[in-house]
């Protein structure tokens, strides 16, 4: 998938069209990205936190609980930045995911 939409996320350091293959490696990467996002958020490095939670979002997109956890991280980042527009967007996306997403793979835990 090429085109301008694919590269709209390049400035955020992640590609929205990750392969989503899943498996133990993806689970380890997901946990690593979430941990790095939480660490960056605690250090008030909002750009890094947003980038790591965004990557975790892509890696965890196939498992609803992981998908929602990544959105909660993005919501927390927006809230701490006092970015109401981003916070509202995350709430909207979380609601949509909770209503319409289904697990496509089982988490390995």
From TrEMBL:
InterPro entries: DUF3703 (IPR022172)
A Pfam family per the record: DUF3703
Top-level taxon in the UniProt lineage: Bacteria
This protein's name: DUF3703 domain-containing protein
Organism: Amycolatopsis silviterrae
Lineage: Bacteria, Bacillati, Actinomycetota, Actinomycetes, Pseudonocardiales
């Amino acid at each position: 998938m090429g085109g301008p939409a694919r590269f709209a996320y390049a400035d955020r350091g992640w590609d929205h069209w990750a392969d989503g293959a899943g498996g133990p490696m993806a689970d380890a990467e997901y946990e690593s990205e979430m941990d790095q996002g939480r660490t960056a958020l605690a250090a008030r490095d909002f750009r890094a936190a947003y980038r790591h939670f965004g990557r975790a979002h892509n890696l965890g997109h196939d498992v609803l609980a992981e998908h929602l956890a990544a959105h909660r991280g993005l919501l927390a980042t927006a809230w701490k930045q006092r970015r109401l527009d981003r916070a509202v967007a995350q709430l909207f996306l979380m609601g949509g995911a909770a209503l319409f997403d289904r697990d496509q793979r089982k988490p390995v835990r």
